[in-house]
Write a structure and sequence with these properties.
alpha+beta, 11 helices
Length: about 260
């Protein structure tokens, strides 16, 4: 297959994966890990925990770690005051955490977005920044703490609070996967995972079987019986194999739409 018809082999799986990714995104199903998506076809049961969190497509502060002299409440107060000026989903998560604790927010001035890195402002005379790990790295700041490594290992989003240029705290926020806030989307993503796998198998079987039959004919195995593929016809059949694999991958659209419709 690699030598005789790499086109079909190269398209058999990647094209199906590309179609499934586009299909899932168009129906509001976010796939963060392709390998996990492929393994999902084998799941027989799904157990939900913390239903309130599961069905709300928004960030929430799950951990607060102080890294300086300010206590947790003071850090959250400054961070929430800053983030109250932002429309970013992560900012809203920090703001909700402060509101849940009944923390009153001070006035904010000179607010400025740091594109792709966070935000900064003046809060009670202090220069306050809420930034990403990338900002710390770019500025040469270090936050070596085993607690932070644990949060990162859990897949949580980290936001660092800087007060007057010094690290004051880190907040761990938990990326709810159900974009449309509907648990039934789990059934949709499992159905799509199974449909995607079936298409990959179909394409591999077709590309392999088709060429296993055509290549010997082109080599003259059936010449004594009067069957011989000319080079021109062999080229046509090779191209046809690629076209059929591509069409079969695109047919995943119909399966995916049906899966989404069943849970909508």
């Amino acid at each position: 297959m690699v030598i005789a018809c790499p086109h079909a082999l190269g398209l058999a799986v990647p094209l199906v994966m590309a179609v499934s990714t586009n299909l899932s995104a168009s129906h509001g199903l976010l796939i963060r890990d392709r390998a996990a998506f492929e393994r999902a076809r084998n799941l027989q049961a799904v157990v939900f925990d913390k239903t309130g969190t599961l069905t709300e497509g928004r960030f929430g502060v799950s951990d607060s770690i102080t890294l300086g002299d300010l206590d947790e409440s003071a850090c959250l107060r400054l961070a929430a005051a800053l983030e109250s000026q932002s429309e970013h989903p992560i900012a809203k998560g920090i703001l909700r955490a402060a509101e849940a604790r009944g923390i009153s927010l001070p006035a904010v001035s000179e607010f400025r977005n740091l594109t792709g890195r966070g935000a900064e402002a003046k809060v009670e005379g202090h220069d306050v920044k809420a930034v990403s790990p990338g900002y710390l790295h770019a500025e040469g700041l270090s936050a070596n703490d085993p607690r932070l490594e644990k949060l990162a290992g859990q897949g949580k989003t980290l936001v660092f609070l800087l007060v007057d240029g010094a690290l004051a705290a880190a907040f761990g926020l938990a990326d709810v996967v159900l974009v449309r806030s509907d648990p039934r989307d789990v059934a949709a993503i499992l159905g799509l995972a199974r449909a995607t796998y079936r298409k990959m198998v179909q394409n591999l079987l077709w590309a392999t079987g088709y060429n296993a039959f055509a290549i010997p004919l082109a080599a003259g195995v059936a010449a004594p019986m009067g069957l011989l593929l000319t080079p021109a016809m062999g080229a046509v059949l090779m191209s046809l194999s690629t076209v059929i694999v591509a069409i079969n991958a695109r047919l995943l659209d119909r399966t995916g739409v049906a899966v989404a419709s069943n849970v909508a």
